Amino acid sequence: MAKKLGIGVIGCGNISKAYFTLAPLFRGIEMRACADINMDAARARAKEFKLSAETVEDLLKAEDIDIIVNLTIPAVHYEVSKQVLDAGKHVYSEKPFVLSLKEGQDLKARAEKKGLRIGSAPDTFLGGAHQLVRELIDEGKLGKITSGTCHVMGHGMEHWHPNPDFFFQPGAGPVLDIGPYYITNLIQLIGPVKQVAAFATTPAKERTISSKPRAGEKIPVNTPTTIHAVLEFENGAVVTLNTSWDVWAHDHAPMELYGEAGTVFVPDPNFFGGDVRFTEEGKPVKKLPKWKHPLGVPNEMHGQGMMANYRTSGLADMALAIVEGRPHRCSMELALHAVDVMTGILRSGETGKFVVMQTTCERPAALGVKAAKELLAKKK
After folding, report:
1. Which residues form a coiled coil (predicted)?
2. CATH code where residue 244 lies
């Protein structure tokens, strides 16, 4: 396919570097311009990646831009995505898509009225490890999924992030910040959620920053930092999701799914790769051999070793889907349902009541080895 869609980015913070760096891995897209309310930030990114630095207004009007990637802070995801749609361009948002179901439904209506596409991160579920789990499930190796557990727990961002204030305010917290990776992966593996119940607590009303340059400064905590939830899926499966920024250490696996015929141990959905372990009925648990999925191949240094990082795969799939006239995998429907689940969990934690989902969605199409290879640009 010769046609490439022009990509512009609004928001030139830390995450933008990953998009600009990894975009050349994929076909069908070409990074062309960036914008930020801070023009110095836009010019710096533009110089680094040989792009055009634009004001937000000029980027929205640019004729060579087909899709705008919204990398602003979550609090303004809705407003910026609305501007993009109103300007007649497709939009792809970083997670979380929006912070309320009402916002998401408004964007959906705007997009449908103009025949535009909306996509949203996370796209880590397209990674080789998670698609291997998807294949196990689709082939019936686990039988029907009946239950599972997810644990994403640590001790907050104040120990390493230079400006951690946002993480402890409404619109963030562990469910909205890290939850999208876990909940999106659960939906693509099991299907849509029917209802949720949760308990939420805020053990510490303030945190002390220990990272530079603000070490010793205290910041308020205005959103729950420990939330334990139970998700009932439309297929009848019941999954426990424990999220916390009040835990120093634990020994739980990131995700385990239990089926009638076996158990699968799923690596951290925050990443594209990792080891998948599996057992059939009473047989010993074994690590599955690596399969030839291109989005599971380590390609980036992380800590002391290599990891697979294919951020932008969801954007590339959306661009190709627009040209090919097919649904894209990181879809508005999937993102909106994940928002419904996350905000439902928080609402249940506040009210002590079960919350029934107001949305549903289809599982996105699997991204097998052949389909994943077709996303990638040919090596020169």
Report:
1. none
2. 3.30.360.10
Is the domain of 90 the same as that of 36?
Answer: yes
What pLDDT, in 10s, does the model give residues 181-230? 999 999 999 999 999 999 999 999 999 999 999 999 999 999 999 999 99
CA 281, 287, 291, 297 torsion: positive or negative?
positive
Does 313 fall in a domain?
no
Q: Are the CB atoms for 37 and 58 separated by under 8 Å? A: no
CA distances from 49 to 6, 17, 303 (A): 15, 9, 25
CA-CA distance, 16 to 31, in Å (whole number)? 11
Cut 0.90: pTM above it:
yes
Question: Which helix (H) or strand (E) is 280 found in, with range?
Answer: strand 277-280
- Residue holding tokens 């490439």? 4
Answer yes or no: do 81 and 168 share one domain: no
pLDDT in tens, 214-271: 999 999 999 999 999 999 999 999 999 999 999 999 999 999 999 999 999 999 999 9
C-alpha to C-alpha distance for 8 and 69, rounded to whole angstroms = 6
Q: What is the DSSP letter of 115?
A: T
Other C-beta atoms lying within 10 Å of the C-beta of residue 301: 10
Final residue before a domain boundary, out of 97, 119, 141 = 119
Spatial separation of the C-alpha atoms in residues 178 and 300, rounded to whole Å: 21
